[in-house]
């Protein structure tokens, strides 16, 4: 192998493993041991590593996203180490969230957009008293997207609403964007700009100008 090789490590503490086994499988933690996968190839783990590698870890949002991704990988590790009957029980089709639970989660997300820690997968699952695994699956079933995608969509919509409600002079754009980023959960103004342009195809300033000229 002549090309440089880079490694990404995921360290799972005994407490985290035991907690996930109990909540996911309702099993004795000592009965489930991590299955060795030396030299194996799993596209899910490859996608996880690539997604983590793209993060710059410069702010709370990136740390939150890394936590969401790693929680999903931990679920997969536990499932791969479980007995076939345990996997079958967990993987059987589930319905979505009830209308009450769905509204409770969505209201909670909107109330905590600026706080990435409050929007972690464990925190959201706790709102409706579900395991992270079941919550993630039921949320996707109800909303048609992942929790991360929904939070990002709501943050961007909140930015649009605030831009539309304020004129913002040319001199005040930079601090306004920085303030918007902080108030809506983005790591900084640059992170907001990148996400906004990727989603809408133009910058917040360009969109605000369109509203101003209309």
UniProtKB/TrEMBL annotation:
Source organism (scientific name): bioreactor metagenome
An annotated Gene Ontology molecular function: sequence-specific DNA binding
Keyword Transcription regulation: yes
Ranges where the HTH araC/xylS-type domain occurs: 103-210
InterPro entries: AraC_XylS_family_regulators, Homeodomain-like_sf, HTH_AraC, HTH_AraC-typ_CS
Keywords attached to this entry: DNA-binding, Transcription, Transcription regulation
SMART domains in the record: HTH_ARAC (SM00342)
Classification via PROSITE patterns: HTH_ARAC_FAMILY_1 (PS00041), HTH_ARAC_FAMILY_2 (PS01124)
Record's protein name: HTH araC/xylS-type domain-containing protein
